[in-house]
Amino acid sequence: MTWRTTVLTLFPEMFPGPLGVSLAGKALASGLWELEARDIRASATDKHRSVDDTPAGGGPGMVLRADVLAAAIDAADAGPDRPRLLMSPRGRPLTQSLVAELAEGPGPLIVCGRFEGVDQRVIEARNLQEVSIGDYVLSGGEIAAMALIDACVRLLPGVMGKQASGEDESFSEGLLEYPQYTRPPEFEGRPIPEILISGDHAKVAGWRRAEAEALTRTRRPDLWAARGGQKGTKSKTEG
Ligand code: SAM
């Protein structure tokens, strides 16, 4: 079954946007995944096609109406097995393990909020799982949804040229990735670390592991602690 995502948005014209180029775009064109962007406003019923209203209890801004959004979700007919997500700064943080979980499933229905957010009752009534892409506030959920979709799509079978490149990169084992080098052999007086051109695969693997551990320990003590803070070697690239 093809991985398929349905995005509910007030701005369907934003899609596929960046998802239509490069790795994700080629995979979309070749049918490795499917994207449907649906206009929430199509479910508005009044003559002004309004989707938002003032917050109950007062305060600034507008809130996406529960009835309109629920109708849009129902009309999308996602089926019972697909995760239903709401992009939201107060949601569960998007991590590589959540991405992997979503990539293994049938593909999510994703609601993109706007304004001050969405009426709480639709979150509960339609069982939306809130997902955040970081501790900052975007003006809408579309860019957050694109980040989530892009991260999932690159893990789908056949999308990445070499499947191994997904297994060895940042977060795959709770570690940041080791530093990468390519030509030229020397750049502005900086050579490539000798071990990487030694041809000794075991030593290269050991060096990369030590660098990944050291970088994680210094840059992301939270990730390091979550792995149990295993002993690592000091890195040349540690900052
Ligand atoms: N009033 C909300 C709050 O303080 O939590 C922020 C609403 S924001 C201006 C509008 C929409 O952008 C949200 O409903 C959500 O869909 C999306 N959004 C903003 N920041 C996000 C983030 N860090 N992760 C995921 N979605 C985000």
Overview of the structural elements:
The chain is an alpha/beta fold. The chain has two domains: 151 residues, SPOUT methyltransferase, trefoil knot domain (Alpha/beta knot, 3-Layer(aba) Sandwich), CATH 3.40.1280; 71 residues, Trp Operon Repressor, Chain A (Orthogonal Bundle). Helices cover 31% and strands 17% of the residues. It has eight helices and nine strands. The chain has a five-stranded parallel sheet with strand order 2-1-6-5-7, with helices on both faces. It has a two-stranded antiparallel ribbon with strand order 3-4. Strand 1, helix 1 and strand 2 form a beta-alpha-beta unit. The longest helix is centred in the last third of the chain and has 19 residues. It binds S-adenosylmethionine. S-adenosylmethionine binds next to strand 5. The site of S-adenosylmethionine has 19 residues, from strand 5. It is an enzyme of class 2 (transferase).
Write the layout of secondary structure elements.
Layout: E1 3-9, H1 22-29, E2 33-39, E3 52-53, E4 63-64, H2 66-76, E5 84-93, H3 96-104, E6 109-112, H4 120-125, E7 129-132, H5 142-153, H6 164-167, E8 186-187, E9 190-191, H7 201-219, H8 221-226
Parallel strand pairs: 1-2, 1-6, 5-6, 5-7
Antiparallel strand pairs: 3-4, 8-9
